[in-house]
Specification:
The chain is mainly α and 363 residues long. The chain contains nine helices and no strands. The C terminus is likely disordered.
């Protein structure tokens, strides 16, 4: 009896060790997958605070909470099942889909660079609405609109995060993939919106400290308030660079997987050339990969930006030409009517004299 109990306890201990090892493996895999998606995470963190600009301070955290819940719902209920089914039954489709997402990141990053160079106009912030249109700021309808817009934008970024993460664990068994991606979804959502909440409330923290009696606290609070716009600009710049880097790297890896090896091999040779530099070889290799990927991302992005900007311009020109053509028709009709009036004029003048004698005879 005691021997059987000891054996059972040994089995339980072995299972516990196996479970702990599995948890460690899942944690390592989730960490690796999350690291690859870092560029999109940084961009998501930089974009989201704009949605609560101009809103009441007491409603900022509740709105961020609603956006975070919507983001988690996007990842787990919609994106994850589709990604897992594709990876299980159509794994060949993952590389093209990932490249499409990478191209979108390149487009987003290049468009922001294009705008910064004065080639375009920044879109209005989602929290802004035209005067006289849409619900008033601070109303439940306005908050619902803000949350809805933020969740829609998050869907694209979340899809890219999950796709990048899935590509890193594609060789894992189906169940392990599922658990790892759920862990990634939860961890990244908490990370992104935790940082967003901290950034959004940092101004309030600074104002609170600036109102304290301590001169040191006042200086720190004022410095915090002044620093936040610079922090947001730096975060936005890092987000743009990260999008170009991640998008370009996805494109390079994708074309290599699909059979065009030359660009990726060229990058690999460049990394090998600096990898053996004593002390800083690893950092230089990473820097070469990052810069080259960002350049590729910028080129691909500018091509897409050019196409996306030329197509609307062409449609606008066509619409303008149609409008001008349509505007010529009334003028021709007007000329025709004028001609008819001019032709009818003498007839009226001939009629009037003939009518007057009749009136005279009657009189």
């Amino acid at each position: 009896m005691s021997g059987g109990l000891a054996a059972l306890l040994d089995d339980i201990a072995a299972l516990a060790k196996l479970a702990a090892a599995s948890i460690d493996d899942v944690g390592l895999a989730a960490g690796k997958a999350s690291t690859k998606a870092l560029g999109v995470v940084v961009d998501d963190t930089a974009v989201t605070p704009r949605y609560v600009e101009g809103l009441l301070a007491k409603r900022e955290l509740p709105i961020i909470k609603k956006i975070a819940i919507g983001s988690l719902r996007n990842k787990i209920l919609f994106i994850l099942p589709v990604a897992l089914l594709l990876s299980q039954f159509a794994p060949w489709a993952m590389t093209p889909l990932l490249m499409v997402g990478g191209a979108y990141l390149c487009f987003e990053g290049a468009e922001k660079v294009f705008e910064a160079l004065g080639g375009g106009h920044h879109q209005a912030r989602p929290a802004e609405s035209a005067e006289g249109s849409g619900p008033a700021v601070g109303t439940p309808e306005h908050e619902a609109k803000v949350v809805s817009g933020a969740v829609r934008t998050d869907f694209i970024l979340s899809a890219e995060i999950m796709a990048i993460s899935l590509a890193e664990v594609a060789s894992e068994p189906f169940l392990s993939r599922t658990v790892i991606l759920i862990v990634v979804a939860i961890a990244i959502t908490i990370l992104v919106y935790g940082v967003v909440a901290l950034i959004v409330k940092m101004d309030d923290v600074g104002l609170h400290l600036a109102g304290r009696k301590s001169p040191r606290a006042q200086r720190f609070g004022r410095g915090l308030v002044k620093a936040m716009p610079h922090v947001m600009r730096v975060l936005s710049t890092v987000g743009i660079a990260a999008m170009l880097w991640v998008g370009g790297h996805i494109i390079l890896s994708g074309v290599n997987t699909l059979g065009w090896h030359a660009p990726y091999e060229l990058l690999h040779h460049a990394e090998e050339a600096v990898h053996h530099v004593p002390g800083i070889g690893g950092m230089l290799a990473w820097l070469v990969d990052t810069v080259a990927s960002a350049i590729v991302g910028l080129i691909v992005g500018f091509v897409i930006v050019g196409v996306m900007h030329l197509i609307p311009k062409r449609k606008l020109d066509q619409a303008k030409s149609h409008t001008e053509d349509a505007g010529d028709v009334p003028s021709r009709d007007h000329d025709h009517e004028s001609a008819e009036t001019a032709a009818a004029g003498p007839v009226d003048e001939l009629k009037h004299p003939s009518e007057e004698p009749e009136k005279t005879q009657e009189t």
